[in-house]
UniProtKB/TrEMBL annotation:
It comes from the Bacteria. Belongs to the YjdM family. InterPro entries: YjdM, YjdM_C, YjdM_N. It comes from Acinetobacter venetianus (strain ATCC 31012 / DSM 23050 / BCRC 14357 / CCUG 45561 / CIP 110063 / KCTC 2702 / LMG 19082 / RAG-1). Residues 44-114 form the Protein YjdM C-terminal domain. Residues 2-30 form the Protein YjdM N-terminal domain. This is Alkylphosphonate utilization protein.
Length: 114
């Protein structure tokens, strides 16, 4: 029997205790049916209220300073193949790669779906 990865930290070392599944790395506990319900609740929307999904293309709607650099991601920059990161503690819920800049995280409130 294969147990699912932890929905919080994606750890593969989950174990079962009675009817609960437990992650030893982040101490998250859940019932298998609850995970599917909580995943459905996590909806990430862009600046215009459109629902985003993994693989979407988005456009930056505001100049964004890059932390630790003097560079800026300009308005209108197109970002392809985004990956959503639900439960991001710092609010940066999009992982992406921007041409000329590299891999970075963005907040969904600063992008619009193409």
């Amino acid at each position: 029997m294969s147990l699912p990865n932890c929905p919080k930290c994606q750890s593969e070392y989950t174990y079962q205790d009675g009817d609960l599944l437990i992650c030893p790395e982040c101490s998250y506990e859940w019932k298998e049916g609850e995970v599917q319900a909580s995943e459905a609740e996590e909806i990430i929307k862009d600046a215009n209220g459109n629902v985003l999904a993994d693989g979407d293309s988005v456009t930056v709607v505001k100049d964004l300073k890059i932390k630790g650099s003097s560079s800026v991601v300009k308005v209108g920059t197109k970002v392809k193949s985004i990956r959503l990161v639900p439960d991001a503690s710092d609010g940066h819920n999009i992982d992406c790669k921007i041409d000329g800049v590299g891999a970075m995280k963005l907040k969904s409130e600063f992008v619009k779906k193409v």
